Amino acid sequence: MDVPNGEDGVAGITQNAVEPGESFTYRFVVKNQAGTYWYHSHQVSSEAVEKGLFGPLIVLPPNDSFTGKDIPIVAHSWLTNERSYQEAFGIADTMKRLIVQPGTPVRLRLINTDSLPITFALSGTPFKVIAIDGTDLNAPTELTGQRLLLAAGGRYDIQFTMPGTAVSLDWPQKSSKVSFLLSQDATASAPALVNGPVFNPATYGSPSKMPFSLSSHFDKEFALLLDDKVGFYNGQMGYLWPINGKVFPNTPMLMVHEGDLVKMSFVNRSWMDHPMHLHGHHMLVLSYNGRPVTGSPWWVDTLNVAPGESYEVAFRADNPGIWMDHCHNLYHAAAGMILHLGYEGVSSPFEVGHGTINQPE
After folding, report:
1. Which of 69, 262, 285, 322 falls between 20 and 30 A from 235, CA-CA?
2. What is the DSSP letter of 270?
3. Is residue 83 part of a domain?
4. Does the structure show a pLDDT above 90 at 176?
5. In a 10 Å sphere around its CB, with 0-12 CB exposed, 13-18 middle and 19+ buried, how is residue 74 labelled?
6. Is 80 exceeded by the pLDDT of residue 32?
7. How far is CA 295 from CA 58, 138, 209, in A?
8. Do 168 and 268 sit in the same domain of this protein?
């Protein structure tokens, strides 16, 4: 959610970390941001999020006319004592059943709190993807058999009308037994698992008027090369995930003036996915692998850039502050895959580093 900079909650940038026994109250007004979001700690977030310090944040429109089942699906995993990962939807780490009568509209709000992309499979019914990262899509059409690859930190809202047979949402990984089964009684069996192509937002829905495009004049342009190497970070040897050859705190500060129209390009030259997350702004995806987006306007706050992929995105610099722009694989961020978007004339009194209490990743 695009909140004022002072309410962003990043230790060392917009506040000091909330220490044991302390409290901090966030106050902001939500305007024109109905949609699916989530919140999490930004103090040692790579550990805090895995251990459950997060939650969904659902903003309903002022005159919400939806009368069906509206269900947040918070996907999460954690490392067990056996050194394997346990997946869950919310607190359910096996099959969860819900009785839903045929003809009922159903909206599932998929939220990926993990550090890796998740592929969801919705089986037993056609469906529409109606929103991405809190922004509605234009003229979504029905999909059948397609899987949904959701960026770490990202959200998809999907909607369907409950049929007379069972519908299941699965996290189809070898180790996962997690599923969400909807049916009109408690005895129904799960439908056959879909195994179709992966949903592509770049070609989905219909175009509509956009505030800017590839042909716009941009006040600032930034090219970000995402890479990998082996090296030392905080005194430990391991994989590093540099941006333009640097890791935090040596990554560049992206400086803008309020009102600037900004274009960013991402190129992933590494061997892992990088879900790039810009705080305080939504980015309009302009192109994917050199091809213009042809579907609905596709707004994101977290964009999964897979190995070998490239994207161009743009946004209006209309929310002054100092904002994190980082990989939402929080382990990558903890290894220095962080930079910041700074507005001219804005500074911060807070400090970050091992000499302070603030350890944002």
Report:
1. 322
2. S
3. yes
4. no
5. middle
6. yes
7. 26, 8, 12
8. no
